[in-house]
Design brief:
By secondary structure, the chain is an alpha/beta fold. It contains 16 helices and 14 strands. It starts with a helix and ends with a helix. The structure holds 2-acetamido-2-deoxy-beta-D-glucopyranose.
Protein backbone atom coordinates (compact mmCIF):
# COMPACT_ATOMS: atom_id res chain seq x y z
CA UNK A 1 0.00 0.00 0.00
CA UNK A 2 1.10 3.52 -0.72
CA UNK A 3 1.36 5.94 2.09
CA UNK A 4 -0.76 8.99 1.54
CA UNK A 5 2.29 11.09 1.03
CA UNK A 6 3.88 8.80 -1.48
CA UNK A 7 0.66 8.54 -3.41
CA UNK A 8 0.37 12.27 -3.56
CA UNK A 9 3.91 12.59 -4.71
CA UNK A 10 3.68 10.11 -7.50
CA UNK A 11 0.32 11.48 -8.51
CA UNK A 12 1.76 14.89 -8.77
CA UNK A 13 4.70 13.81 -10.83
CA UNK A 14 2.33 11.90 -13.04
CA UNK A 15 -0.03 14.78 -13.47
CA UNK A 16 2.69 17.22 -14.28
CA UNK A 17 4.30 14.95 -16.79
CA UNK A 18 0.93 14.25 -18.34
CA UNK A 19 -0.03 17.85 -18.63
CA UNK A 20 3.32 18.76 -20.01
CA UNK A 21 3.04 16.02 -22.56
CA UNK A 22 -0.39 17.03 -23.64
CA UNK A 23 0.91 20.48 -24.18
CA UNK A 24 3.93 19.24 -26.06
CA UNK A 25 1.78 16.94 -28.16
CA UNK A 26 -1.03 19.22 -29.06
CA UNK A 27 0.64 22.59 -29.00
CA UNK A 28 4.11 21.75 -30.24
CA UNK A 29 5.11 25.31 -31.02
CA UNK A 30 4.73 26.50 -27.45
CA UNK A 31 7.77 24.58 -26.27
CA UNK A 32 11.07 24.00 -27.94
CA UNK A 33 11.97 20.40 -28.77
CA UNK A 34 15.02 20.51 -26.56
CA UNK A 35 13.06 21.52 -23.49
CA UNK A 36 10.43 18.86 -24.00
CA UNK A 37 13.19 16.39 -24.47
CA UNK A 38 14.99 17.17 -21.28
CA UNK A 39 11.79 17.20 -19.34
CA UNK A 40 9.71 14.45 -20.77
CA UNK A 41 12.42 11.90 -20.98
CA UNK A 42 14.40 12.35 -17.85
CA UNK A 43 13.10 14.42 -15.02
CA UNK A 44 9.63 13.40 -14.00
CA UNK A 45 8.11 10.96 -16.40
CA UNK A 46 10.01 7.97 -15.09
CA UNK A 47 8.42 8.47 -11.69
CA UNK A 48 4.99 7.87 -13.07
CA UNK A 49 5.67 4.21 -13.61
CA UNK A 50 4.10 3.76 -10.19
CA UNK A 51 0.72 4.54 -11.62
CA UNK A 52 -1.19 2.94 -14.37
CA UNK A 53 -4.57 4.45 -14.86
CA UNK A 54 -5.20 2.68 -18.11
CA UNK A 55 -4.73 -0.73 -16.67
CA UNK A 56 -6.81 0.04 -13.62
CA UNK A 57 -9.55 1.39 -15.80
CA UNK A 58 -9.57 -1.49 -18.24
CA UNK A 59 -7.97 -4.85 -17.76
CA UNK A 60 -6.78 -7.02 -14.91
CA UNK A 61 -3.11 -7.82 -14.47
CA UNK A 62 -1.68 -9.74 -17.38
CA UNK A 63 1.78 -10.85 -18.44
CA UNK A 64 3.39 -7.62 -19.39
CA UNK A 65 2.84 -5.72 -16.20
CA UNK A 66 5.02 -2.65 -16.29
CA UNK A 67 4.49 -1.84 -12.60
CA UNK A 68 5.76 -5.17 -11.40
CA UNK A 69 8.53 -5.46 -13.93
CA UNK A 70 10.54 -2.32 -14.46
CA UNK A 71 12.67 -3.89 -17.16
CA UNK A 72 9.65 -3.87 -19.45
CA UNK A 73 10.18 -0.19 -20.16
CA UNK A 74 13.74 0.49 -21.20
CA UNK A 75 15.69 3.06 -23.10
CA UNK A 76 19.12 2.27 -24.48
CA UNK A 77 21.61 4.57 -26.17
CA UNK A 78 19.98 7.85 -25.28
CA UNK A 79 22.09 10.85 -26.14
CA UNK A 80 22.60 12.15 -22.61
CA UNK A 81 25.25 14.73 -23.37
CA UNK A 82 24.50 18.18 -22.04
CA UNK A 83 22.75 20.38 -24.52
CA UNK A 84 23.53 23.99 -25.21
CA UNK A 85 21.57 26.01 -22.65
CA UNK A 86 20.45 22.72 -21.08
CA UNK A 87 20.99 24.15 -17.60
CA UNK A 88 18.92 27.21 -18.30
CA UNK A 89 16.06 25.13 -19.66
CA UNK A 90 16.19 22.71 -16.72
CA UNK A 91 16.23 25.52 -14.21
CA UNK A 92 13.25 27.13 -15.86
CA UNK A 93 11.28 23.91 -15.78
CA UNK A 94 12.11 23.20 -12.16
CA UNK A 95 11.23 26.73 -11.20
CA UNK A 96 7.90 26.51 -12.96
CA UNK A 97 7.28 23.18 -11.33
CA UNK A 98 8.14 24.38 -7.81
CA UNK A 99 6.22 27.61 -7.93
CA UNK A 100 3.22 26.96 -10.12
CA UNK A 101 2.55 23.23 -10.12
CA UNK A 102 3.76 21.64 -6.92
CA UNK A 103 1.75 23.89 -4.55
CA UNK A 104 -1.53 23.16 -6.30
CA UNK A 105 -0.93 19.49 -6.70
CA UNK A 106 -0.02 19.10 -3.02
CA UNK A 107 -2.90 21.13 -1.76
CA UNK A 108 -5.87 19.11 -0.47
CA UNK A 109 -8.29 21.50 -2.12
CA UNK A 110 -6.99 21.02 -5.62
CA UNK A 111 -5.67 17.44 -5.50
CA UNK A 112 -8.86 15.83 -6.76
CA UNK A 113 -8.93 18.15 -9.70
CA UNK A 114 -5.44 17.01 -10.58
CA UNK A 115 -6.48 13.41 -10.66
CA UNK A 116 -9.24 14.42 -13.02
CA UNK A 117 -6.74 16.25 -15.18
CA UNK A 118 -4.64 13.13 -15.47
CA UNK A 119 -7.56 10.99 -16.51
CA UNK A 120 -8.57 13.57 -19.07
CA UNK A 121 -5.00 13.72 -20.30
CA UNK A 122 -4.89 9.97 -20.79
CA UNK A 123 -8.19 10.06 -22.60
CA UNK A 124 -6.75 12.63 -24.92
CA UNK A 125 -3.61 10.61 -25.45
CA UNK A 126 -5.62 7.53 -26.27
CA UNK A 127 -7.42 9.37 -28.97
CA UNK A 128 -4.12 10.59 -30.41
CA UNK A 129 -4.79 10.28 -34.06
CA UNK A 130 -1.74 11.64 -35.76
CA UNK A 131 -2.28 13.45 -39.02
CA UNK A 132 -2.85 10.61 -41.40
CA UNK A 133 -4.33 8.10 -38.95
CA UNK A 134 -7.24 10.43 -38.33
CA UNK A 135 -8.36 9.79 -41.88
CA UNK A 136 -8.38 6.01 -41.59
CA UNK A 137 -12.03 5.45 -40.56
CA UNK A 138 -13.21 7.46 -43.58
CA UNK A 139 -11.23 5.51 -46.19
CA UNK A 140 -12.87 2.99 -48.51
CA UNK A 141 -12.09 -0.63 -47.75
CA UNK A 142 -13.44 -3.80 -49.37
CA UNK A 143 -16.20 -5.77 -47.68
CA UNK A 144 -17.20 -2.62 -45.81
CA UNK A 145 -14.50 -3.41 -43.30
CA UNK A 146 -14.46 0.07 -41.82
CA UNK A 147 -18.18 0.04 -41.16
CA UNK A 148 -18.23 -2.90 -38.75
CA UNK A 149 -16.60 -2.18 -35.43
CA UNK A 150 -17.00 -5.72 -34.14
CA UNK A 151 -14.97 -7.38 -36.91
CA UNK A 152 -11.92 -7.74 -34.70
CA UNK A 153 -13.67 -8.85 -31.53
CA UNK A 154 -12.51 -12.43 -31.93
CA UNK A 155 -8.80 -11.61 -32.02
CA UNK A 156 -9.20 -9.06 -29.24
CA UNK A 157 -10.90 -11.59 -26.97
CA UNK A 158 -8.03 -14.04 -27.31
CA UNK A 159 -5.69 -11.80 -25.33
CA UNK A 160 -2.66 -12.83 -27.33
CA UNK A 161 0.63 -11.00 -26.98
CA UNK A 162 1.84 -8.84 -29.88
CA UNK A 163 5.31 -7.51 -30.52
CA UNK A 164 5.58 -4.30 -32.54
CA UNK A 165 8.96 -3.69 -34.13
CA UNK A 166 10.01 -0.49 -35.87
CA UNK A 167 13.37 0.37 -37.39
CA UNK A 168 13.72 4.10 -37.93
CA UNK A 169 16.42 5.58 -40.08
CA UNK A 170 15.82 9.29 -40.46
CA UNK A 171 12.11 8.94 -41.10
CA UNK A 172 10.77 11.28 -38.47
CA UNK A 173 7.67 12.26 -40.40
CA UNK A 174 6.25 8.75 -39.94
CA UNK A 175 6.93 8.45 -36.29
CA UNK A 176 4.07 10.40 -34.75
CA UNK A 177 1.60 8.62 -36.97
CA UNK A 178 3.17 5.27 -36.23
CA UNK A 179 2.92 6.02 -32.53
CA UNK A 180 -0.71 6.95 -32.90
CA UNK A 181 -1.36 3.70 -34.75
CA UNK A 182 0.28 1.76 -31.95
CA UNK A 183 -1.86 3.57 -29.41
CA UNK A 184 -5.02 2.88 -31.38
CA UNK A 185 -4.16 -0.79 -31.60
CA UNK A 186 -3.09 -0.86 -27.92
CA UNK A 187 -6.43 0.59 -26.95
CA UNK A 188 -8.17 -2.41 -28.48
CA UNK A 189 -5.72 -5.21 -27.77
CA UNK A 190 -4.92 -3.91 -24.30
CA UNK A 191 -1.78 -1.93 -23.39
CA UNK A 192 -0.42 -4.90 -21.42
CA UNK A 193 -0.76 -7.25 -24.37
CA UNK A 194 1.71 -5.47 -26.58
CA UNK A 195 5.41 -4.73 -26.55
CA UNK A 196 6.95 -1.96 -28.65
CA UNK A 197 10.54 -2.23 -29.87
CA UNK A 198 11.87 0.88 -31.60
CA UNK A 199 15.32 0.92 -33.09
CA UNK A 200 16.72 4.27 -34.13
CA UNK A 201 19.48 3.43 -36.57
CA UNK A 202 21.77 6.40 -36.85
CA UNK A 203 19.03 8.93 -37.59
CA UNK A 204 20.20 12.45 -38.31
CA UNK A 205 16.83 14.20 -38.24
CA UNK A 206 14.52 14.82 -35.26
CA UNK A 207 13.93 11.12 -34.65
CA UNK A 208 15.84 11.32 -31.36
CA UNK A 209 13.53 13.94 -29.96
CA UNK A 210 10.47 12.12 -31.20
CA UNK A 211 11.57 8.85 -29.63
CA UNK A 212 11.72 10.77 -26.33
CA UNK A 213 8.13 11.69 -26.92
CA UNK A 214 7.23 8.09 -27.72
CA UNK A 215 8.94 6.99 -24.53
CA UNK A 216 6.94 9.43 -22.42
CA UNK A 217 3.63 8.52 -24.03
CA UNK A 218 4.25 4.78 -23.68
CA UNK A 219 5.16 5.24 -20.01
CA UNK A 220 1.95 7.14 -19.40
CA UNK A 221 -0.13 4.48 -21.07
CA UNK A 222 1.66 1.61 -19.35
CA UNK A 223 2.79 0.04 -22.61
CA UNK A 224 5.99 -2.04 -22.36
CA UNK A 225 8.74 -0.93 -24.71
CA UNK A 226 12.39 -0.80 -25.52
CA UNK A 227 13.62 2.23 -27.41
CA UNK A 228 17.17 1.98 -28.56
CA UNK A 229 19.52 4.12 -30.59
CA UNK A 230 22.54 2.56 -32.27
CA UNK A 231 25.35 3.91 -34.43
CA UNK A 232 25.73 2.78 -38.03
CA UNK A 233 27.75 -0.33 -38.85
CA UNK A 234 30.17 1.76 -40.85
CA UNK A 235 31.10 5.37 -40.33
CA UNK A 236 30.81 6.18 -44.01
CA UNK A 237 27.34 5.11 -45.23
CA UNK A 238 28.86 4.34 -48.61
CA UNK A 239 31.13 1.71 -47.10
CA UNK A 240 28.05 -0.15 -45.87
CA UNK A 241 26.61 -3.28 -47.41
CA UNK A 242 22.91 -2.59 -47.17
CA UNK A 243 21.54 -6.15 -46.88
CA UNK A 244 23.97 -6.76 -44.01
CA UNK A 245 22.82 -3.53 -42.37
CA UNK A 246 19.19 -4.53 -42.81
CA UNK A 247 19.81 -7.85 -41.12
CA UNK A 248 21.72 -6.20 -38.29
CA UNK A 249 18.96 -3.65 -37.59
CA UNK A 250 16.21 -6.24 -37.72
CA UNK A 251 18.00 -8.60 -35.36
CA UNK A 252 18.66 -5.77 -32.90
CA UNK A 253 14.99 -4.81 -32.94
CA UNK A 254 14.18 -8.43 -32.08
CA UNK A 255 16.56 -8.66 -29.12
CA UNK A 256 13.86 -8.02 -26.47
CA UNK A 257 11.70 -10.72 -28.09
CA UNK A 258 14.43 -13.28 -27.51
CA UNK A 259 15.29 -11.98 -24.04
CA UNK A 260 11.70 -12.13 -22.86
CA UNK A 261 11.42 -15.63 -24.23
CA UNK A 262 14.68 -16.98 -22.83
CA UNK A 263 14.69 -15.26 -19.45
CA UNK A 264 10.99 -14.92 -18.70
CA UNK A 265 9.35 -17.59 -20.84
CA UNK A 266 7.14 -14.92 -22.36
CA UNK A 267 6.08 -15.90 -25.85
CA UNK A 268 4.50 -13.55 -28.32
CA UNK A 269 1.90 -14.79 -30.76
CA UNK A 270 2.71 -12.40 -33.58
CA UNK A 271 5.44 -9.91 -34.46
CA UNK A 272 4.26 -6.84 -36.38
CA UNK A 273 6.86 -4.91 -38.36
CA UNK A 274 5.75 -1.36 -38.99
CA UNK A 275 7.32 0.46 -41.90
CA UNK A 276 5.80 3.55 -43.41
CA UNK A 277 2.20 4.19 -42.50
CA UNK A 278 -0.60 1.64 -42.17
CA UNK A 279 -4.12 2.14 -40.77
CA UNK A 280 -4.93 0.36 -37.47
CA UNK A 281 -7.86 -1.66 -38.86
CA UNK A 282 -5.72 -2.89 -41.73
CA UNK A 283 -3.14 -4.14 -39.26
CA UNK A 284 -5.82 -5.91 -37.24
CA UNK A 285 -7.12 -7.54 -40.39
CA UNK A 286 -3.67 -8.69 -41.42
CA UNK A 287 -3.26 -10.23 -37.97
CA UNK A 288 -6.60 -11.96 -38.41
CA UNK A 289 -5.52 -13.36 -41.80
CA UNK A 290 -2.27 -14.49 -40.23
CA UNK A 291 -4.08 -16.53 -37.56
CA UNK A 292 -6.77 -17.85 -39.91
CA UNK A 293 -4.11 -19.33 -42.21
CA UNK A 294 -1.55 -20.24 -39.58
CA UNK A 295 0.70 -18.14 -41.82
CA UNK A 296 4.43 -17.72 -41.31
CA UNK A 297 4.17 -14.20 -42.73
CA UNK A 298 1.46 -11.90 -44.07
CA UNK A 299 2.43 -8.63 -45.73
CA UNK A 300 0.53 -5.56 -46.72
CA UNK A 301 1.27 -3.73 -49.94
CA UNK A 302 3.39 -0.59 -50.26
CA UNK A 303 2.14 2.30 -52.37
CA UNK A 304 4.26 5.35 -53.08
CA UNK A 305 3.66 8.54 -54.97
CA UNK A 306 5.41 8.56 -58.34
CA UNK A 307 4.90 11.26 -61.01
CA UNK A 308 1.39 12.00 -59.80
CA UNK A 309 0.34 8.34 -59.51
CA UNK A 310 0.55 5.76 -56.78
CA UNK A 311 2.69 2.79 -57.71
CA UNK A 312 3.35 -0.53 -56.05
CA UNK A 313 6.62 0.08 -54.37
CA UNK A 314 8.41 -2.93 -52.99
CA UNK A 315 9.77 -4.52 -56.09
CA UNK A 316 13.10 -5.42 -54.60
CA UNK A 317 11.88 -7.86 -51.99
CA UNK A 318 8.55 -9.10 -53.27
CA UNK A 319 8.32 -12.21 -55.51
CA UNK A 320 5.12 -13.86 -56.65
CA UNK A 321 4.57 -17.58 -56.18
CA UNK A 322 6.32 -18.22 -59.50
CA UNK A 323 9.40 -16.37 -58.30
CA UNK A 324 8.90 -13.28 -60.49
CA UNK A 325 9.19 -9.72 -59.30
CA UNK A 326 5.97 -7.72 -58.93
CA UNK A 327 5.08 -5.13 -61.54
CA UNK A 328 5.49 -1.47 -60.79
CA UNK A 329 1.72 -1.14 -61.25
CA UNK A 330 -0.36 1.91 -60.66
CA UNK A 331 -3.02 1.66 -57.99
CA UNK A 332 -5.60 2.11 -60.75
CA UNK A 333 -4.13 -0.63 -62.98
CA UNK A 334 -6.32 -2.85 -65.13
CA UNK A 335 -6.67 -6.53 -64.14
CA UNK A 336 -4.03 -7.65 -66.66
CA UNK A 337 -1.37 -5.31 -65.23
CA UNK A 338 -1.71 -5.70 -61.48
CA UNK A 339 1.37 -6.09 -59.25
CA UNK A 340 1.54 -9.93 -58.97
CA UNK A 341 2.36 -11.54 -62.32
CA UNK A 342 1.17 -15.07 -61.57
CA UNK A 343 -2.39 -15.91 -62.67
CA UNK A 344 -3.84 -17.05 -59.37
CA UNK A 345 -2.25 -14.18 -57.44
CA UNK A 346 -3.46 -11.61 -59.98
CA UNK A 347 -7.01 -12.97 -59.91
CA UNK A 348 -7.17 -12.95 -56.14
CA UNK A 349 -5.58 -9.50 -56.00
CA UNK A 350 -8.34 -8.22 -58.30
CA UNK A 351 -10.93 -9.57 -55.83
CA UNK A 352 -9.07 -8.00 -52.87
CA UNK A 353 -8.33 -11.46 -51.47
CA UNK A 354 -5.10 -12.57 -49.80
CA UNK A 355 -2.78 -14.44 -52.20
CA UNK A 356 0.25 -16.63 -51.75
CA UNK A 357 3.72 -15.40 -52.67
CA UNK A 358 7.29 -16.67 -52.61
CA UNK A 359 8.43 -13.60 -50.67
CA UNK A 360 7.19 -10.23 -49.51
CA UNK A 361 7.86 -7.42 -47.12
CA UNK A 362 5.88 -4.44 -48.40
CA UNK A 363 5.70 -2.19 -45.40
CA UNK A 364 3.71 -3.54 -42.51
CA UNK A 365 4.00 -7.28 -42.20
CA UNK A 366 3.04 -9.81 -39.57
CA UNK A 367 5.35 -12.71 -38.73
CA UNK A 368 4.58 -15.81 -36.65
CA UNK A 369 7.60 -16.10 -34.34
CA UNK A 370 6.80 -19.74 -33.58
CA UNK A 371 7.54 -20.56 -37.23
CA UNK A 372 10.60 -18.36 -37.44
CA UNK A 373 12.40 -16.45 -34.68
CA UNK A 374 11.69 -18.95 -31.91
CA UNK A 375 13.12 -21.65 -34.17
CA UNK A 376 16.39 -19.80 -34.46
CA UNK A 377 15.78 -18.11 -37.81
CA UNK A 378 17.28 -14.65 -37.77
CA UNK A 379 17.91 -12.10 -40.48
CA UNK A 380 21.03 -12.57 -42.56
CA UNK A 381 22.55 -11.61 -45.88
CA UNK A 382 25.06 -12.82 -48.39
CA UNK A 383 28.71 -12.50 -47.45
CA UNK A 384 30.75 -12.57 -50.63
CA UNK A 385 30.02 -9.02 -51.69
CA UNK A 386 32.77 -6.75 -52.96
CA UNK A 387 33.87 -4.05 -50.51
CA UNK A 388 34.73 -1.11 -52.74
CA UNK A 389 36.44 0.68 -49.86
CA UNK A 390 39.21 -1.88 -49.91
CA UNK A 391 41.78 -2.63 -52.57
CA UNK A 392 40.62 -6.25 -52.72
CA UNK A 393 39.55 -7.71 -56.04
CA UNK A 394 35.91 -8.63 -56.46
CA UNK A 395 35.31 -12.17 -55.19
CA UNK A 396 34.98 -14.76 -57.90
CA UNK A 397 31.42 -16.02 -57.89
CA UNK A 398 30.05 -18.99 -59.76
CA UNK A 399 26.78 -18.81 -61.69
CA UNK A 400 25.05 -20.69 -58.85
CA UNK A 401 26.49 -18.52 -56.10
CA UNK A 402 23.89 -17.54 -53.50
CA UNK A 403 21.87 -14.45 -54.35
CA UNK A 404 23.22 -11.26 -52.78
CA UNK A 405 19.74 -9.84 -52.32
CA UNK A 406 17.85 -8.25 -49.41
CA UNK A 407 17.86 -9.75 -45.94
CA UNK A 408 14.10 -10.24 -46.29
CA UNK A 409 14.65 -12.42 -49.36
CA UNK A 410 17.04 -14.55 -47.31
CA UNK A 411 14.43 -14.70 -44.55
CA UNK A 412 11.77 -15.93 -46.98
CA UNK A 413 14.02 -18.68 -48.36
CA UNK A 414 14.84 -19.68 -44.78
CA UNK A 415 11.10 -19.93 -44.04
CA UNK A 416 10.56 -22.22 -47.03
CA UNK A 417 13.48 -24.48 -46.22
CA UNK A 418 12.90 -24.62 -42.49
CA UNK A 419 9.16 -25.26 -42.92
CA UNK A 420 9.93 -28.13 -45.29
CA UNK A 421 12.43 -29.66 -42.88
CA UNK A 422 10.04 -29.43 -39.94
CA UNK A 423 7.31 -31.10 -41.97
CA UNK A 424 9.67 -33.98 -42.76
CA UNK A 425 10.59 -34.33 -39.09
CA UNK A 426 6.91 -34.41 -38.18
CA UNK A 427 6.27 -37.21 -40.65
CA UNK A 428 9.22 -39.14 -39.23
CA UNK A 429 7.93 -38.68 -35.72
CA UNK A 430 4.48 -39.89 -36.73
CA UNK A 431 6.13 -42.98 -38.20
CA UNK A 432 7.92 -43.56 -34.94
CA UNK A 433 11.35 -42.93 -36.36
CA UNK A 434 14.05 -40.69 -35.05
CA UNK A 435 13.94 -37.54 -37.21
CA UNK A 436 16.47 -37.95 -39.94
CA UNK A 437 17.83 -35.44 -42.33
CA UNK A 438 17.36 -35.34 -46.05
CA UNK A 439 20.52 -37.14 -47.02
CA UNK A 440 19.70 -40.07 -44.77
CA UNK A 441 16.49 -40.66 -46.66
CA UNK A 442 15.94 -42.56 -49.80
CA UNK A 443 16.20 -39.51 -51.92
CA UNK A 444 18.19 -39.42 -55.09
CA UNK A 445 21.27 -37.48 -54.38
CA UNK A 446 21.55 -35.10 -57.21
CA UNK A 447 24.66 -34.05 -58.93
CA UNK A 448 24.39 -30.32 -59.28
CA UNK A 449 25.87 -29.47 -62.63
CA UNK A 450 27.27 -26.05 -63.25
CA UNK A 451 24.88 -23.79 -65.10
CA UNK A 452 25.64 -21.26 -67.79
CA UNK A 453 25.89 -17.74 -66.46
CA UNK A 454 22.48 -16.19 -66.93
CA UNK A 455 23.74 -12.72 -66.38
CA UNK A 456 22.74 -10.67 -69.35
CA UNK A 457 25.73 -8.64 -70.52
CA UNK A 458 23.65 -5.84 -71.97
CA UNK A 459 21.90 -5.40 -68.65
CA UNK A 460 25.21 -5.32 -66.83
CA UNK A 461 26.38 -2.58 -69.15
CA UNK A 462 23.19 -0.59 -68.56
CA UNK A 463 23.68 -0.97 -64.84
CA UNK A 464 27.24 0.28 -65.06
CA UNK A 465 26.12 3.26 -67.09
CA UNK A 466 23.39 4.10 -64.59
CA UNK A 467 25.91 3.92 -61.81
CA UNK A 468 28.30 6.25 -63.57
CA UNK A 469 25.48 8.71 -64.20
CA UNK A 470 24.63 8.69 -60.54
CA UNK A 471 28.21 9.19 -59.53
CA UNK A 472 28.70 12.01 -62.03
CA UNK A 473 25.64 13.79 -60.63
CA UNK A 474 27.48 14.10 -57.34
CA UNK A 475 25.35 16.35 -55.18
CA UNK A 476 25.49 17.51 -51.60
CA UNK A 477 26.41 15.11 -48.84
CA UNK A 478 22.89 14.67 -47.54
CA UNK A 479 21.43 11.46 -46.21
CA UNK A 480 19.81 10.34 -49.43
CA UNK A 481 18.00 7.38 -47.99
CA UNK A 482 16.22 9.42 -45.36
CA UNK A 483 12.47 9.76 -45.64
CA UNK A 484 12.07 7.47 -48.60
CA UNK A 485 9.77 4.54 -49.23
CA UNK A 486 10.55 1.03 -50.34
CA UNK A 487 10.66 1.95 -53.99
CA UNK A 488 13.98 3.55 -53.28
CA UNK A 489 15.32 0.02 -52.88
CA UNK A 490 13.86 -1.22 -56.13
CA UNK A 491 16.10 -1.93 -59.05
CA UNK A 492 15.61 0.96 -61.43
CA UNK A 493 14.12 0.48 -64.87
CA UNK A 494 17.32 1.48 -66.62
CA UNK A 495 19.11 -1.17 -64.61
CA UNK A 496 16.58 -3.63 -65.97
CA UNK A 497 14.28 -3.88 -62.96
CA UNK A 498 11.18 -4.50 -65.07
CA UNK A 499 12.77 -7.18 -67.24
CA UNK A 500 11.74 -10.68 -66.24
CA UNK A 501 14.60 -13.06 -66.99
CA UNK A 502 13.42 -16.21 -68.78
CA UNK A 503 13.22 -19.48 -66.85
CA UNK A 504 16.47 -21.37 -66.66
CA UNK A 505 16.77 -24.02 -69.37
CA UNK A 506 16.24 -27.59 -68.26
CA UNK A 507 19.56 -29.18 -67.56
CA UNK A 508 20.01 -32.53 -69.20
CA UNK A 509 20.63 -35.27 -66.70
CA UNK A 510 19.63 -33.29 -63.66
CA UNK A 511 17.13 -35.21 -61.57
CA UNK A 512 15.99 -32.76 -59.02
CA UNK A 513 13.41 -33.43 -56.39
CA UNK A 514 10.74 -30.84 -57.14
CA UNK A 515 9.93 -28.23 -54.55
CA UNK A 516 6.26 -29.17 -54.83
CA UNK A 517 6.80 -32.34 -52.79
CA UNK A 518 7.75 -30.30 -49.73
CA UNK A 519 5.30 -28.62 -47.40
CA UNK A 520 4.80 -25.02 -48.57
CA UNK A 521 5.65 -22.01 -46.48
CA UNK A 522 2.58 -19.95 -45.80
CA UNK A 523 3.56 -16.50 -46.97
CA UNK A 524 0.69 -14.26 -48.04
CA UNK A 525 0.06 -10.76 -49.25
CA UNK A 526 -3.06 -9.03 -47.98
CA UNK A 527 -3.97 -6.45 -50.65
CA UNK A 528 -6.46 -4.87 -48.26
CA UNK A 529 -3.61 -3.56 -46.14
CA UNK A 530 -2.03 -0.60 -47.96
CA UNK A 531 1.14 0.89 -46.51
CA UNK A 532 2.01 4.38 -47.69
CA UNK A 533 4.72 6.99 -47.59
CA UNK A 534 4.84 10.74 -47.79
CA UNK A 535 2.90 12.49 -50.51
CA UNK A 536 0.13 9.94 -50.88
CA UNK A 537 -3.48 11.06 -50.98
CA UNK A 538 -5.01 8.26 -48.97
CA UNK A 539 -8.55 8.96 -50.07
CA UNK A 540 -7.64 8.73 -53.76
CA UNK A 541 -5.48 5.66 -53.22
CA UNK A 542 -8.37 3.91 -51.47
CA UNK A 543 -10.74 4.77 -54.33
CA UNK A 544 -8.23 3.55 -56.92
CA UNK A 545 -7.68 0.28 -55.12
CA UNK A 546 -11.10 -0.55 -53.78
CA UNK A 547 -13.64 1.47 -55.78
CA UNK A 548 -16.80 1.92 -53.78
CA UNK A 549 -15.89 -0.90 -51.38
CA UNK A 550 -19.13 -2.77 -51.94
CA UNK A 551 -17.84 -6.26 -52.53
CA UNK A 552 -19.96 -9.29 -51.94
CA UNK A 553 -19.37 -9.90 -48.26
CA UNK A 554 -20.16 -13.59 -48.55
CA UNK A 555 -17.19 -14.18 -50.81
CA UNK A 556 -15.26 -17.29 -49.83
CA UNK A 557 -11.56 -17.06 -49.19
CA UNK A 558 -11.90 -13.62 -47.68
CA UNK A 559 -9.60 -14.71 -44.89
CA UNK A 560 -8.48 -18.25 -45.64
CA UNK A 561 -6.53 -19.52 -48.63
CA UNK A 562 -7.45 -23.12 -49.47
CA UNK A 563 -4.80 -24.17 -51.98
CA UNK A 564 -1.13 -23.73 -51.21
CA UNK A 565 1.54 -24.04 -53.87
CA UNK A 566 5.08 -25.29 -53.44
CA UNK A 567 8.06 -22.99 -53.89
CA UNK A 568 9.02 -21.97 -57.45
CA UNK A 569 11.97 -23.85 -58.97
CA UNK A 570 13.68 -20.54 -59.64
CA UNK A 571 13.27 -16.90 -58.75
CA UNK A 572 14.38 -13.50 -59.96
CA UNK A 573 17.47 -12.60 -57.96
CA UNK A 574 18.16 -8.88 -57.77
CA UNK A 575 21.47 -8.52 -56.05
CA UNK A 576 23.85 -5.94 -54.71
CA UNK A 577 27.25 -7.37 -55.39
CA UNK A 578 29.10 -4.50 -53.81
CA UNK A 579 29.05 -2.01 -50.99
CA UNK A 580 27.69 1.47 -51.57
CA UNK A 581 24.78 1.84 -49.18
CA UNK A 582 21.13 1.33 -49.86
CA UNK A 583 21.19 2.49 -53.45
CA UNK A 584 24.22 0.51 -54.59
CA UNK A 585 23.95 -0.80 -58.12
CA UNK A 586 21.84 -3.91 -58.50
CA UNK A 587 22.03 -6.59 -61.13
CA UNK A 588 19.57 -9.29 -61.95
CA UNK A 589 19.59 -12.96 -62.89
CA UNK A 590 17.29 -15.92 -62.51
CA UNK A 591 18.56 -18.35 -59.96
CA UNK A 592 17.43 -21.88 -59.26
CA UNK A 593 15.92 -22.64 -55.87
CA UNK A 594 15.91 -26.22 -54.71
CA UNK A 595 14.63 -26.97 -51.24
CA UNK A 596 16.23 -30.37 -51.45
CA UNK A 597 19.63 -28.86 -52.19
CA UNK A 598 19.19 -26.38 -49.37
CA UNK A 599 18.31 -29.16 -46.94
CA UNK A 600 21.49 -30.95 -47.94
CA UNK A 601 23.52 -27.86 -47.20
CA UNK A 602 22.02 -27.69 -43.72
CA UNK A 603 23.56 -31.00 -42.78
C1 LIG B 1 34.63 -2.05 -46.16
O1 LIG B 1 35.95 -1.71 -45.87
C2 LIG B 1 36.11 -0.59 -45.05
C3 LIG B 1 37.60 -0.27 -44.99
O2 LIG B 1 38.32 -1.41 -44.59
C4 LIG B 1 35.50 -0.87 -43.68
O3 LIG B 1 35.63 0.24 -42.84
C5 LIG B 1 34.05 -1.22 -43.87
O4 LIG B 1 33.47 -1.60 -42.63
C6 LIG B 1 33.87 -2.36 -44.86
N1 LIG B 1 32.46 -2.52 -45.13
C7 LIG B 1 31.84 -3.70 -45.02
C8 LIG B 1 30.38 -3.68 -45.26
O5 LIG B 1 32.38 -4.73 -44.74
Amino acid sequence: MFSLRRRNLSRLAFAAAALFLIRALFFPSSSSPSSSRTFASTTHSTQIEEQNFIERATRPDKWLNVQKHKFLQARIGRDSRDEVLGDVVRNGINDYWDRFQLPYIESRDTASMDAQHVLTAIDQLLSLNGWVAALCPTLVRPFNQNKHDDTWDDIIRQEHLYYFAIVIHSADHFLVDQLSVIIQVAKRLGPNNIFVSMLDYQSTDSTETLTDLCEAVLILLGVPFRIRRVPGMTEDPNAAYYPLEEAHMRNLALEPLHELHQKRQIKFHRVIWLKGFTCPNDILETIKISFANDAAMVCGMDWAEHNGFFIFSDRWRTRDIEGDQFRQSKSSSKPDAVPPRDKVGAARYAQHLPFQVFCCEAGTHVVDPAQSYYKGISYRSGTDYHNLSTTDDAPIRGPDAPCLDSSQAWFCRDLWVRGARDAMDEVDRLNGAVPARANKRELNLVDVAKRDPLMDEARAAAAEEAKQKREAAGGPAIDLDANVGSDYDAMSDEEGGEVVPPPAPEEPGRMAIPNSVFRPARILVNPRCPTTYAGVSHTQLALDLFGNGEDNEGVSGKYVLEDWEGAPESFVCQEQRQTGGRRATKTQRRLGFSIHDELQKME
